[in-house]
Write a structure and sequence with these properties.
heterodimer, A: about 475 residues, alpha/beta, 5-stranded parallel β-sheet, 13 helices, B: about 120 residues, alpha+beta, 4 helices, globular, disordered N terminus
Chain lengths: ~475, ~120
């Protein structure tokens, strides 16, 4: 396996990772930037797969700056193993590669929380974040009527985006009430551009005659191998589905999402301290005001440290790169303090808006009630709620015990999609807080690795073999 | 799962949204800009399917009517879900390798086998 040494490894080329790499390189560090996608930009500025599709200005600018910088940006690399000190192993169509550096910035963003309902594993049901990727990068959308459901600004971004792309929106189901939105207006008003964009989305949806149902969720999805219909249900203020008032709409697709969860596995694999954020209901790494984790040399930035949005991620990423450069001795304390002070202010200002949106999306306890007994929770291993509750009542008190008894979270996604829901269900079963039931243990490989790729293409004769006596 | 029954009929460029709904098939549509660019051919379970070089394989499959990509251990169909390489639901056998179709770019002549990527 090739081994390449750098001053700094940055994992994740979204707004945070991209800025971290650029900032550190500007101060003279040799930087390798590893990312799973074909181009930099992260999910928020995901690059179009074809030049005829328009890219976001921010994404195009970030990619241009990276291309013109000394940063070694390696796209299409999935990180499957990390070791303290630091060593990072990646896999790509080029095979496996290993990178070493004394400093590392991890900016791996989030995964979407999708709280399932009966039929939600049917092909044609996608995440809200997935729908934004279809719109931004792939230029391909469901032609048939699509239900857009969940919580947060993405609901309206996706509904308006689908309409603009020539799709049809059958209905919008928003868990939030108009009052929930109104309470976030003061924070949003600090960023008039964002507020105006949100208003444009909502008016586009209304103009198209799409009914927006506030305080509604998806109760079930009908169809075998494809979506035929989606049933919507009103919810109470804790997002608990009400027994009456259900309505079924004909649909060919459903885009559904319930907020974002930091992707913490690399920082956890490296032993960084985490804490359960009881407001957001997710595990977040402990970082200092300069983006340092509890592990010396490991810096964290972006939504992976707690949801604050893409604008905050830009500044957090720059600060992580700057702090790494300082700790590497690339700039003196006075220069560092001057630069860091300004970036911190900008980061905290942007985070207030992002934080208000994150608060809107904070999962309320009743939402888990939409997961009925026969709802598939773990799509990879076909584990439903009844199996999870049976395991919990027969003694599984944390998620790892649940995993070994049911295989929930043991499939190829490694529990990334079902983990938070499964944990919530175990906690509910025992009547305890979600933080009590723990988190999946992080183990390599962090991403599925085909064995033949891992082994490489060496010949049998390359393997060192002992010689035996007598000859 | 009768997912291959109509594949030959589907292997033509953009049947159009109206036709798709009339036939009750979950066809996806490409942006008009994409409809104007040159096509290549991929092979999905040996049937020729028109696609665009460089586009996302998962959406190319969706645009040709294939949403059932992977399969759960119990044999239930699975399709694209996260579109960012995390959920592994859209696994297929691509040129002999198990890969998530949402992170693969279409190449001319690509061989895709569905329903064999997931499960065990």
């Amino acid at each position: 396996m090739r081994n390449r040494a750098f001053d700094l490894i940055v994992v994740g080329a979204g707004p945070a990772g991209g800025e971290a790499a650029l900032e550190a390189a500007r101060h003279g560090l040799s930087v390798v930037l590893l990312d799973e996608n074909a181009a930099a930009g992260g999910q928020v500025h995901r690059a179009p797969t074809h030049p005829v599709l328009d890219a976001s200005a921010e994404g195009a600018a970030l990619r241009k700056r990276l291309a013109e910088s000394p940063v070694t940006h390696l796209a299409g690399r999935s990180v499957w193993h990390v070791e303290p000190g630091f060593s990072v192993s990646s896999i790509s169509s080029a095979g496996t590669e290993r990178f070493t550096a004394p400093w590392i910035v991890v900016a791996t963003g989030t995964v979407e929380r999708i709280v399932p309902v009966p039929g939600a594993a049917t092909p044609g049901v996608i995440g809200l974040a997935a729908a934004t990727i279809l719109l931004k990068a792939y230029g391909t959308v469901p032609a048939g009527p699509t239900v857009v459901a969940g919580v947060g600004p993405l609901v309206y971004a996706v509904a308006a985006g689908l309409l603009a792309a020539g799709g049809q929106v059958a209905a919008v189901a928003d868990l939030a009430s108009p009052g929930d939105w109104a309470r976030r207006l003061p924070a949003l008003a600090r960023r008039p551009a964002l507020l105006a964009q949100g208003m444009r989305w909502i008016s586009a949806v209304r103009r198209a005659g799409v009914s927006i149902r506030f305080r509604h969720t998806v109760a079930s999805v009908a169809g075998v191998g494809q979506v035929d219909a989606v049933t919507l249900a009103p919810v109470d203020q804790n997002w608990r589905p009400r027994p009456n008032g259900h309505q079924t709409v004909t649909a060919r697709a459903l885009a559904m999402g319930h907020g974002l969860v930091p992707a913490a596995e690399i920082a956890r694999a490296l032993g960084a301290d985490h804490r359960h954020d009881s407001v957001a209901g997710v595990l977040v790494p402990k970082i200092d005001p300069l983006q340092r984790s509890s592990v010396a040399g490991l810096y964290l930035a972006g939504d992976g440290t707690g949801i604050a949005g893409a604008d905050a991620a830009i500044h957090a990423g720059r600060l992580a790169g700057l702090t790494a450069a300082r700790d590497a001795g690339a700039l003196d304390d006075a220069a560092f303090e001057r630069a860091a002070g300004l970036i911190r202010k900008a980061r905290d200002r942007a985070a207030r808006v992002g934080g208000a949106m994150a608060q809107l999306m904070t999962q309320r306890p009743g939402l888990l009630d939409q997961v009925t007994q026969d709802t598939i929770v773990c799509r990879c291993e076909d584990v439903d709620r009844a199996m999870i509750e049976a395991a919990a009542t027969s003694g599984a008190r944390d998620v790892n015990q649940l995993k070994s008894t049911t295989r929930c979270g043991m499939g190829p996604c490694q529990g990334r999609m079902c983990g938070e829901v499964a944990a919530g269900l175990v906690a509910a079963c025992h009547g305890v807080d979600r933080s009590v039931v723990g988190h999946w243990t992080v183990r390599p490989p962090l991403r599925p690795v085909p064995l033949d790729v891992l082994l490489g293409d060496y010949a049998y004769d390359d393997i060192p073999k002992p010689t035996f006596e007598p000859r | 799962m009768a997912k291959n029954a109509t594949r030959a009929k589907l292997a033509r460029p953009n049947p159009g949204a109206t036709a798709a709904m009339a036939n009750d098939r979950p066809i996806w549509i490409r942006a008009p800009e994409l409809e104007r660019v040159a096509r290549c051919t991929i092979f999905v379970d040996d049937a020729a399917v028109s696609a665009i070089e460089g586009e996302c394989l998962a959406t190319a499959l969706a645009a040709s009517g294939s949403l059932n990509l992977g399969a759960s251990p119990a044999g239930r169909p699975r399709g694209m879900l996260c579109m960012m390489g995390t959920c592994q639901q859209c696994l297929a056998l691509i040129d002999g390798q198990r890969r998530v179709t949402c992170m693969v770019s279409v190449r001319d002549g690509m061989q895709v086998r569905l329903g064999e990527g997931g499960g065990r």
